[in-house]
Design brief:
Helices cover about 45% and strands about 15% of the residues. It contains 11 helices and 10 strands.
């Protein structure tokens, strides 16, 4: 049975994609293509403001299917997933991406999770930097930038599983929830983000993504430039009016 990605709209402003390839939700070529398409669909729809990605069943994702790779190495036809292309697409999307890590998150699955802006985990989640376990290298660039070199090396060099509480301590995830409450918590966070001014959210993400790469003066100038543009937007005017009138703002991406 081939895997699939279930894509559904949740309310008006949230698009949710769930990986489904039991038992470990390994990523087949068609699944990677569908997930990439879902990102494009979200970007092309002006009403979508947040993308949520999770896995179905007891696992989040174990990366590429090693059986497919073995078949390809032995000359049998087996389309290989373009994981690099998917990762770059997620990294560059202007939309906020929330990952719900519902179970085992290993190898390429961890690399996938590192592309998300925010990660929430089930209390049963496990995180494994499997590169050294498989004679490869993976996550060694992005993970240290996200959680710091010392914590990253503990994960990267041992290849040991780390639980949700350790991931929370390392700041790899933002929140940990009981398994049955993870989806609701993630969608509640997505709804909160979607209720904010979308142009402001996207500009804030752009600046935050550059925070460790730009010199201080250049970073502050970029933030000032974004704020100057936003100050002329209809959404800013709506926010000011709502604040003064003690009402809830209605944002139109204008």
């Amino acid at each position: 049975m081939s895997g699939t990605v279930h894509v559904e709209r949740v309310g008006r402003h949230i698009l949710m994609a769930e990986l489904d390839n039991p038992p470990r939700n390994t990523l087949q070529a068609g699944m990677v293509a569908r997930l990439s398409e879902a990102v494009s669909e979200a970007e092309d729809d002006p009403d979508i403001r947040v993308l949520v990605i999770s896995g179905r069943g007891p696992a989040f994702c174990a990366g590429a299917d090693l059986r497919d790779k073995r078949d390809a190495n032995e000359g049998r036809e087996s389309p290989q997933p373009d994981l690099g292309g998917l990762f770059r697409k997620l990294e560059k999307t202007p939309l906020p991406v929330i990952g719900l890590i519902n179970g085992a998150c290993a190898g390429g699955g961890l690399e996938l999770a590192l592309q998300f802006d925010i990660r929430l985990a089930s209390a049963e989640a496990k995180f494994i930097c499997a590169g050294v376990n498989m004679g490869l290298v993976a996550s060694a660039y992005r993970l240290p930038r996200l959680i710091g070199v010392a914590a990253a090396k503990a994960m990267l060099l041992t290849g040991s599983p780390f639980g949700a509480e350790a991931a929370l301590r390392f700041n790899l995830v933002t929140e940990v929830h009981p398994p049955g409450e993870l989806r609701a918590a993630g969608l509640a966070m997505a709804a909160r983000i979607a209720s904010r001014a979308p142009l402001s959210v996207e500009a804030t993400k752009r600046i935050a993504d550059q925070a460790f790469d730009l010199p201080t003066e250049e970073g502050l100038r970029a933030q000032t430039d974004e704020a100057r543009i936003l100050s002329r937007s209809a959404d800013h005017k709506a926010a000011v009016a709502a604040f003064l009138n003690k009402t809830d703002p209605v944002f139109t991406r204008g």
